[in-house]
Amino acid sequence: MFSRLTMCCVISALAGTLSLACGDDDDGSDEPVAGSGATAGRSGSGSAAGAGGRSSAGTGGGGGRMGAGLQACPAGKPSATDSCTPSMGNCKYADEMCDCVQGMNTWACWSPADCPASVPAEMSACPTTGMSCTVAGAGCTCTADGWNCGNQYCPAEEPAAAAECEGGTGTCAYGARVCDCDQSMWVCWNPTDCPATPPARRAECTTRGMICPFEGGECECGARGWTCGRGVDVPEPDTDAGL
User: Fold this and answer.
1) Between vectors from CA 173 to CA 172 and to CA 177, what angle results, nearest 5°?
2) Within 10 A of 233 (CB to CB), how many other CB atoms are there?
3) What is the DSSP letter of 191?
4) Positive or negative CA dihedral for 117, 119, 123, 124?
5) Tell me, what DSSP letter sits at residue 159?
6) Cα(228)–Cα(171) distance, integer angstroms
7) Where are the alpha helices (DSSP H) in the chain?
């Protein structure tokens, strides 16, 4: 009859598991096998990110910690010529905010008191390139071209059809006509060209990009015809048409 010790060794040999001891460990150590998780290959993940001397965005430096992807804030207020790496968030220093400007890789600092009281016109003049403000619920950024609040930029005069543009929220009015940037091209129309009642889904239309208001929402002329918002009471399809 096999002893327990002999059977242990036989099972180990058959399984090819040479690391299983067939007796007591003389030194009594419990060192984990390299690569087994608790020690090997784990020390650099998770904990190292907080040890790089980077402070949390908006805290104004000195904390020495930050989450991945957040703006690294210097201990003291940076100057406009200091280089930086753009990331998420701003840095607060007393009554000023600072941010690393995307594309410039240098700092911009401003006082929140310099933010406009109401949403400015798109591309209107702004004081400090890189500053960001929340105005009436809208996020606005001062760019090299002026304020960018995500709204439609309206040229001083009605743009030419199909001229290049950058889309945004809203439309532009020019007398009795309305223009909008659709698919990076200007399209203009007369509101009187809109249907008197909400059109059926995918009904034929002629001016791609035109938007018409109706009770409950808007309808837009697209490549496949009219599409309307969920709140618009559009005609039901004629199920007897094919009979």
Assistant:
1) 120
2) 12
3) G
4) negative
5) P
6) 17
7) 4-15
The SS3 assignment for 126 reads coil
State the amino acid at position 47 in one-letter form. Answer: S
Structure confidence by residue, pLDDT tens digits, 134-165: 999 999 999 999 999 999 999 999 999 999 99
DSSP letters spanning 54-85: -BPTTS-S-S----TTBPPBPSSPPPTT-B--
Tokens of residue 242, six digits: 């094919």
Sheet holding 211-214, edge to edge: 211-214, 217-222, 225-228
Rg of the chain on CA atoms, in Å = 32
Regarding pTM above 0.70, the answer is no
How far is the C-alpha of 169 from the C-alpha of 138, rounded, in Å? 11
- For residues 201 and 231, the answer to whether their CB atoms sit within 8 Å is no
Q: How far apart are CA 108 and CA 110, in angstroms?
A: 7
Report CA torsion sign: 30, 32, 38, 42: positive
Q: Pairing between strand 211-214 and 217-222? A: antiparallel
